[in-house]
Amino acid sequence: MRDMAAGPRVLLKRLRELMAEPLEPQARLDRIVREIASNMVAEVCSLYILRADSVLELYATEGLNPGAVHLAQLRLGQGLVGTIAASARPLNLSDAQQHPAFTYLPETGEEIYNSFLGVPVLRAGRTLGVLVVQNRTKRVYREDEIEALETTAMVIAEMIATGDLVRLTRPGLELDLTRPVTIDGLSFNEGIGLGHVVLHEPRIVVTNLFNEDSDQEVERLDTALGSLRLSIDDMLSRRDVAFEGEHRAVLEAYRMFANDRGWVRRLEEAVRNGLTAEAAVEKVQSDMRARMLHMTDPYLRERMSDFDDLANRLLRQLLGRGPEDVAASLPKDAIIVARSMGAAELLDYPRDKLRGLVLEDGAVTSHVVIVARAMGIPVAGQMKGAVSMAENGDAIIVDGEEGVIHLRPQPDLEAAYSEKVRFRARRQEVYRELRSKPSVSRDGVKVDLLMNAGLAVDLPQLADSGAAGIGLFRTELQFMVAAAFPRAEQQERLYRDVLDAARGKPVTFRTIDIGGDKVLPYFKTVAHEENPALGWRAIRLTLDRPGLLRTQVRALLRAAGGRELRLMLPMVTELGEIAQARELIDREVRHLSRFGHDLPNILKVGAMLEVPSLLWQLDELMAAVDFVSVGSNDLFQFVMATDRGNTQLSDRFDPLSVPFLRVLKQIAAAGARTGTPVTLCGELAGKPISALALIGVGFRSISMSPASIGPVKAMLLETPISELKTFFDDNLEGPSAQLPMRALLHTFAADHNIPI
Ligand code: PEP
Ligand code: MG
User: Fold this and answer.
1) Residue 350 near residue 333, CB atoms below 8 Å
2) Which residue has the higher pLDDT, 148 or 186?
3) pLDDT digits (tens, 9 = 90+) for 453-489
4) Which protein residue's CA is at the shortest distance from atom 6 of ligand 1?
5) Residue 2 — pLDDT band, cuts 50, 70, 90?
6) How remote is the CA of residue 520 from the centroid of ligand 2, in Å?
7) CB 198, CB 337: distance < 8 Å
8) Ligand 1 test: best mutation among 572, 610, 637, most atoms within 8 Å of CB?
């Protein structure tokens, strides 16, 4: 019997030799497929390559009709080869023609072969082609043969990626690998980055499996663990992370994990069982991953990537590869592309070379995103397929404003973006100059421009943007990034930090708005809701779980001792909810004062106007609160019956339409009539054109993302509000009210030289 491991080893050695020989690409491919066929005792070996037009083209074959090379073609998903490419999984068939996907290509002459083994040619998870062996006899290929063919496919992937095959491609056709690609996702941090792809590949392959001397190996492991802990301490003392905030808490968790007795014990055990230290790290890590594989819980997934990160750091320590190696080989304009990433891994890349971050997964609250925001780099997330589409060194643009990436952009797009970056830089300069200017219209009407925030990392933006205060502090974000309910002291510390950072500027804290799409993994709510947006969320949930609200209110009252506290209730549907919340707040005030605590010197309670029911009781609402803030994201979704998270509908209905603007106008009017301050804190406030509309219908206070303050202020300074008011009186109520308001507003802005 032949040595099972010798086959692949001999083959790989032969392939390496073939790679080094001075051969033309086609000749090299022909030799490769011949070599594989003979090594695997197969009558046929063929290689199909995926083109940019989603066609798999036969590039080389041993055994099939040589005349079919570059002619035989299958679409992605068509035939066995197309199925393998589309699913990125091998197919092992003893009777290929019986398979439902089998497609007969007469030019190949393959009808005489029965058994079929095909594997995808993968690189970083992306399918570049398919490698096939076939035999006449009906046989099932063994596991080791599948593995051997997969390993061979990896070598071929390398060859494709290095560009060797491009020369074989007929003029006018492109390999899939070189095609420009645009991917739409989400914006996780503002900014635009132009640069070159650096695939974040945390996986380190361990080849040395068994130790010679367990005691010595345990010692090696301990030394590496010691250096790992030191390197984490170093990281924590770095200037860009040393200041307080969630990012720091996230990194502190690493320190905790690195000292985790259970983890260290499992590692040592594996070494005692005969593994090398690095193989032990791999094993413990893959055991853990297997245990967590089926967990959909976002928190646990986040923790898993922290642990993966830690394990990789330990591997690097053991193999003597430091982060310096990463830094040295980095282009000066690196854009990191990753599926997901541990927060600390980002810090291994030198800040001065980082131009952006692209994640396939992630959310605004992912740990790595929080760290990226603290470092001030543009981040685009939910970029499905980015890792497999990108190659190291590819040109790439990250548009953190639109949440889009452009891979291998065409020169004109790249030029347009370079111009956009220059323009942005100039504009930022202008906005910086506007920061200290009073926020008034051209005709002297004051409009407060506030910012939205939710985490400590957002706070420096308050000074940077020149915002008049924080109009919406989304307190639930602290809950969303935490491992468990933040303790009362942690909540209080954050609120105190926020108020300290605000230096007397007003801050409106919204009580936790969870439920719906904002889930806390450690808090089990209703198992399944048919309509979560209309479900048990926000104030509904916190009134039913008063312990939660009470702890938060107490933390807020204590943090605001001697200062003003503005509390805002989310998703109010009926006035009774406000009364109930007030009762709870009053009880907490009495409780704290009984124990002699320093209380806020002013306490204001407001409601968010997000549910349409309140529109028919505006005066009563205004009487029941100290202020109202319109949550236009939710209000629009409910008024128009359009899911705010459904991308299919995202541009379908316009908030700058007659009905919605009339709704907003009524709210502003009710505020003015009753002398109740009214603001608006949805995304609508952040675009100059819609902010113009808000001011036009009567809002004198709006709250938006910090990056929007500059552009909105630039618009405000040039806007004659009295003329704008007339414009709305004429167009929103009169006979022409059916005209598209957005278009009319654009004309108004152009006529009055208003930058929007
Ligand atoms: C809103 O609904 O407009 C709002 C500001 O709240 P959130 O986006 O957090 O739901
Ligand atoms: Mg809302």
Assistant:
1) no
2) 186
3) 988 888 988 998 999 999 999 999 888 877 789 999 9
4) 631
5) very low
6) 16
7) yes
8) 610
Query: Amino acid identity, residue 671?
Result: G
- CA atoms within 13 Å, Cβ hemisphere of 736: 10
Contact predicate 521/554, CB 8 Å? no
631 ligand 1 Cβ < 6 A: yes
Mean pLDDT lowest for which of 167-171, 506-510, 511-515, 640-644?
167-171
Residue nearest to atom 8 of ligand 1 (CA): 633
Reference 698, options 673, 715, 718; nearest CA is 673
User: Across 15-150, where does the E strand assignment appear?
Assistant: 44-50, 55-62, 73-75, 91-93, 115-123, 126-135
**pLDDT tens-digit map of 100-141:** 999 988 889 888 999 999 999 876 557 889 999 999 999 999
Number of the ligand closest to the Cα of 682? 1
Phi, psi of 414 (to 5 degrees): -65, -40
In one-letter notation, the amino acid at residue 500 is D
Rounded to 5°, the CA angle 326-332-334 comes to 65
Which pairs count as long-range contacts for 11-15, CB under 8 Å and 24+ apart, including other chains?
11/35, 11/36, 11/39, 11/40, 11/148, 11/152, 12/151, 12/152, 12/155, 14/39, 15/152, 15/155
Whether 257 and 306 have beta carbons less than 8 Å apart is answered as yes
Q: Over the range 482-492, which residues count as b (16 or more CB within 10 Å of their CB) and which as e?
A: beebbeeeebb
640 CA to centre of ligand 1 in angstroms: 15
Nearest to 701 by CA among 666, 676, 720, 728: 676
Beta strand pairing call for 395-399 and 192-199: antiparallel
Q: Please compute the mean of the pLDDT values over residues 215-228 and round it to a whole number.
A: 93
The span from the CA of 477 to the CA of 365, in Å, is 7
d(C-alpha 256, C-alpha 260), whole Å: 6
CA 41 remoteness from chain centre: 47
Q: What is the 3-state secondary structure (H, E, C) of 334-366?
A: EEEEECCCCHHHHCCCCHHHEEEEEECCCCCCC
Q: Give me the amino acid identity at 645.
A: G
Cα dihedral 658, 662, 665, 671, rounded to 10, equals -160
Pocket test for ligand 1, best of 514, 608, 705 (most atoms within 8 A of CB): 608
Residue 395 CB partners (closer than 8 Å, separation 6+): 194, 195, 196, 197, 407, 408, 409, 414
Ligand 1 touching residue 632 (CB < 6 A): yes
Helix extents (H) in 5-52: 6-20, 25-39
Q: Give 16-43 pLDDT, tens digit per residue.
A: 788 778 888 889 899 999 999 999 999 9
Round to whole Å and give the CA distance between 277 and 268.
Answer: 8
Q: What does the alpha-carbon distance between residue 103 and residue 100 come to, in Å, rounded to a whole number?
A: 9
Contacts 24+ apart (CB under 8 A), 324-332: 327/353, 330/198, 331/195, 331/196, 331/198, 331/393
Say yes or no to pLDDT of 258 above 90.
no
Verify whether ligand 1 is closer than 6 Å to residue 474 (CB atom): yes
What pLDDT is recorded for position 181? 87
User: What is the full DSSP assignment across 447-490?
Assistant: -EEEEEE-SGGGTHHHHHHT-SSEEEEETHHHHHHSSSPPPHHH
pTM of the complete model: 0.70
**Residues carrying an active site annotation:** 367, 681
